[in-house]
């Protein structure tokens, strides 16, 4: 059996194997819960072992994407996706007021509704 003498190659392959081993068995599955209320909705995401910096929340039009990526400590260019979830937001959500908070191992994304959605309003009929 020949021993690989290129230490740089061995170091790079070891980092990749370590990263994929962690992804394959070292991290528990992500749990997502969506609750709807009168004034809005809340998306709760729990992912054991995931740092707050690994989460990303991206809004594009009415599409909200929440994902997390595991980066290698030794090679910042090496990363593996851990979680990816896309939500199509209803027109009632005030896109300008969405906020995300990470607290005690949980990511919480608040989706407030427009205030006009809360109560019906009668529209005056004008005569000409």
Automatic annotation (TrEMBL):
It comes from Pontibacter locisalis. Pfam families: HSP20 (PF00011). It comes from the Bacteria. Residues 22-128 form the SHSP domain. CDD domains: ACD_sHsps-like. InterPro entries: A-crystallin/Hsp20_dom (IPR002068), HSP20-like_chaperone (IPR008978). Belongs to the small heat shock protein (HSP20) family. This is Hsp20/alpha crystallin family protein.
